[in-house]
From TrEMBL:
<feature type="active site">
    <location>
        <position position="280"/>
    </location>
</feature>
<dbReference type="Pfam" id="PF08541">
    <property type="entry name" value="ACP_syn_III_C"/>
</dbReference>
<dbReference type="InterPro" id="IPR016039">
    <property type="entry name" value="Thiolase-like"/>
</dbReference>
<keyword id="KW-0963">Cytoplasm</keyword>
<feature type="active site">
    <location>
        <position position="114"/>
    </location>
</feature>
<keyword id="KW-0275">Fatty acid biosynthesis</keyword>
<keyword id="KW-0511">Multifunctional enzyme</keyword>
<dbReference type="InterPro" id="IPR004655">
    <property type="entry name" value="FabH"/>
</dbReference>
<dbReference type="GO" id="GO:0006633">
    <property type="term" value="P:fatty acid biosynthetic process"/>
</dbReference>
<keyword id="KW-0443">Lipid metabolism</keyword>
<feature type="domain" description="Beta-ketoacyl-[acyl-carrier-protein] synthase III C-terminal">
    <location>
        <begin position="235"/>
        <end position="323"/>
    </location>
</feature>
<feature type="active site">
    <location>
        <position position="250"/>
    </location>
</feature>
<comment type="similarity">
    <text>Belongs to the thiolase-like superfamily. FabH family.</text>
</comment>
<dbReference type="Pfam" id="PF08545">
    <property type="entry name" value="ACP_syn_III"/>
</dbReference>
<feature type="domain" description="Beta-ketoacyl-[acyl-carrier-protein] synthase III N-terminal">
    <location>
        <begin position="108"/>
        <end position="185"/>
    </location>
</feature>
<comment type="subunit">
    <text>Homodimer.</text>
</comment>
<protein>
    <recommendedName>
        <fullName>Beta-ketoacyl-[acyl-carrier-protein] synthase III</fullName>
        <ecNumber>2.3.1.180</ecNumber>
    </recommendedName>
</protein>
């Protein structure tokens, strides 16, 4: 008789750039303050990367593989979730494959904005549970600092750079993503949009990448979408709120995280919160949060975890994850990204200056 397979999470790791941009740093060139940002978002600081998305993804990947003690040549699939790829072609996943020596792995990117990593987990789990794959590396990686308009307070204060990764492996033990629901509310896709790509006029490009971010509408639809997805996975598994040991959500806004915690009846001490350190790193928030939840002891062997995400598109997802028996990495997974001597302000101020000059030319 065929044994049912599960996609156990055996490896985890992150990469956060060394350059820290505080709220006080932002106030030196934007009309804002630490109090204004914290009271609306819960963010105190964020990281700014001096390297591309693929390099961030590579460090996170190596840490996840070390935690699993898995030879990269044993991987059969790599999925990178990102909306800030280094280039249109080739994809980020192929660069990671080359960097880590995963010669036998297929590799592709997925872009569901902030939901990208969870989308990758959903499809990687399906691939393992159907027997199509055995060892899958999934990564969420973003370098949002390079696409933000640093003259716009409403969006510039929200985002940061980083990457996180997981290794999923076929297992006979009931573990990993037990139920998931993903969706897309495309009627409102334009309320969160970055107008850049093949739609822009490259012959008249002035360096500006308009970022439409309608915060109130996004929040309203995020609440509706994530609530429905969470209710779906509870109904599908037959579990109740009493079965939940931890909540690890997308780190977009503290008010949204607080709403989810209240909905899932999860005490504050059982909700993973690290938005204050990194801001919204889009697809990277979930794997970074999982890694830190394990490192801090929030996640314990056998725990039942609820996750929920929301992103541009408008994409949405939620899942129930059963953690396996191990919360200790098999090998050291604390590789970090070396700095280059530049501070976060060193990296951002030229971007702010460029955007300021571009807006002045456009409006003249």
């Amino acid at each position: 008789m065929k044994t049912e397979k599960y996609a156990e999470i055996t490896g985890w790791g992150k990469c956060v750039p060394p350059a820290i941009m505080t709220n006080e740093d932002l106030a030196t060139f934007l009309d804002t303050s630490d109090e204004w940002i914290r009271s609306r978002t819960g963010i105190g600081e964020r990281r700014i990367s001096h390297v591309g998305t693929s390099e961030l993804a590579t460090v996170a990947a190596r840490n996840a593989l070390a935690a699993a003690d898995l030879d990269p040549r044993d991987l059969d699939l790599i999925i990178v979730g990102t909306c800030t790829a280094d280039e249109i072609i080739p994809n980020v996943a192929s660069k990671v494959q080359k960097n880590i020596g995963a010669t036998g792995a297929a590799a592709f990117d997925t872009n569901a904005a902030c939901s990208s990593f969870f989308y990758a987990m959903h499809f990687a789990t399906a691939g393992i549970r159907t027997g199509m794959h055995k060892n899958v590396l999934i990564i969420g990686a973003e370098r949002l600092s390079r696409v933000l308009d640093w003259t716009k307070r409403e969006s510039a204060v929200l985002f940061g750079d980083g990457a996180g990764a997981m290794v999923l492996q076929a297992s006979d033990e009931e573990s990993g993503l037990l139920s998931s629901k993903i969706s897309c509310d495309s009627d409102a896709r334009d309320v969160l949009a970055l107008d850049f790509g093949l739609s822009f006029d490259r012959f008249n490009f002035d360096g500006l990448m308009p970022f439409n971010f309608e915060g109130q509408e996004i929040f309203k639809r995020a609440v509706k979408g994530m609530s429905a997805a969470v209710e779906h996975v509870f109904a599908e598994t037959g579990l109740t709120m009493n079965d939940v040991d931890a909540l690890i959500p997308h780190q977009a806004n503290k008010r949204l995280i607080d709403f989810l915690a209240k909905m899932c009846k999860v005490p504050e001490g059982k909700t993973m919160l690290n938005i204050q350190k990194y801001g919204n790193t889009s697809s990277a928030t979930l794997p970074i949060a999982f890694t830190e939840a394990i490192e801090t002891g929030l996640v314990k062997p056998g725990d039942t975890i609820v996750s929920a995400v929301f992103g541009g598109g408008l994409t949405c997802g939620a899942g129930i994850i059963k953690w396996g028996k191990r919360v200790t990495p098999l090998k050291d997974n604390q590789m970090t990204l070396p700095g280059n001597g530049q501070s976060a302000l060193d990296l951002v101020l030229p971007l702010h200056k460029g955007a300021t000059e571009a807006w002045a030319k456009r409006e003249s």
